[in-house]
Specification:
Blueprint (H helix, E strand, L loop, with lengths): L1 H11 L6 H16 L17 H12 L4 H28 L3 H14 L2 H6 L4 H20 L3 H17 L7 H8 L8 H27 L5 H8 L5 H12 L1 H17 L3 H19 L17 H6 L1 H8 L3 H16 L13 H12 L9 E4 L4 H6 L2 E4 L6 H5 L2 H11 L3 E7 L2 E2 L22 E7 L5 E7 L5 H11 L12
Parallel strand pairs: 1-2, 1-3
Antiparallel strand pairs: 3-4, 3-6, 5-6
Amino acid sequence: MAIAAFISIGHQTSRVIFDDAYISFRYAHNLATHGQLTWNIDGELTQGYSNFLLVIIMAAGIRLSANPLVVARVVSYMSLLAIGYAFYRCLWLRWRFPPRVSILLFILFIFFSQAIPLANTGMESILSGALIAWFILLLTQFQQEPEYRILVRLCLISFLSFLTRPENGLLIIPLCLLAFQGRKGLPLKSAAKAILLFWLLPVIAFLCWELYYYGSILPLPFYVKVLNATTHSGIEAFLYTIASHKLLFVCAALGSWLSLRKKEGWNWTLMLIIIFLLFGVYLSTADLLMNIYNRFFFPFLIIPLLLTAPLVKWVLQGNQVVAALVFLFLLIPVALPYRGHPTYDSHELMTREKQFAIQLGKYDDIKNISIAFGDAGVIPYYTGASFIDLSGLNNNTIAKSTKDKALNYLFGSKPTLLIGASVDGNWINFGHGKLGDFSSWMTDARMNDYKYVGTVQTDYYNLELLLRKDYPDFKKLSEHLVRSSDTVYPFSRLFH
């Protein structure tokens, strides 16, 4: 029943097109085909990705003629299996859980966490979750057997996790708390040696490479989403995570209380709580728009699931009939039709952007035009054109400068095609980035250099196509854009 439900969910969400994933695809493609890990080939070097490990894996796949989305999905499904194994081993080592109970709990976790739809997006969330799950497994082993070899593995997993998501570098805090726990752990000299050789030096080497290659150790999303966050979407995402998994967090709280009250596995419980709060507090300060399938917090959902263990053990030790009824009740959603994120069709935003981009990419001089827009994923990937990311996630100047300087840079760059976003005849605010609010700068006098040529309609917002008047083949490109768009009409309310 569970397998059939998961296959159904996977099929329903297999056509999901998620814009952010295609940012990584473009970086991987440029590395595989041009040897440059950057956004625009032969342009300024930019670090707009924040998932280095997955980008490298996808680049290797592209070199072998594989589709990056397929590669990312394979990695995600393999990572999901890795999470399941780490979960089972943790419960066995810490609580001696029967395998069938661990499997049942993990099946429920896959369904309630929307893991399968998330795996289909092509993002790194499942991979990040797998590395964190294995960090917790090794942490569990080290608490029982504080051996040097286990600490080395912890350091290496922490480093790989850091390469997958920069914020995973926070794992160094619980790692140090674990390694330097005094008489119960390794000698301080041995612990320091392991962390120095297998975490600190690799991290320093990677940061030095970033500084040499990009001139900066911080990815551009850090400037846009953390240093200059313009929304409270991080807090909203954190609250949404708790609200949408109320049963899980209630059980986790009760399980933690039982563990701490009985002082049974209390140090393991406390360490997991510290890890979850570390990431929860950090991510709450960031701009987490586009939180599809709760992708930012998914890697840490394995923690509250593990914290339910003392409660589940207490239930299993009681009335077996009651325990069976509880699990049957929890299994009901697995048997029901999937009611998660809606299935994407031709009218969905990113699917329509893909259709438009493929058509635009057929323009015979596409390699010599530049496009400026805020959805920096599907359109730049499928057109292959030089692309100015108005949100700044893939542009050094826009990410790091003031709004006025960003505007001067944009108009000074003279993009061939400028795409704006509107709803009901009004320019909209994307939500993040210096130039994300179209309504605040589309009335700039320099917009007189552009002419409206068409509209791409979606069910979320419309893409307004504005072509530079002095483009040498204006007529030819405008006709191609008209064929690629849905309609052309007097756009008097927004643009003259």
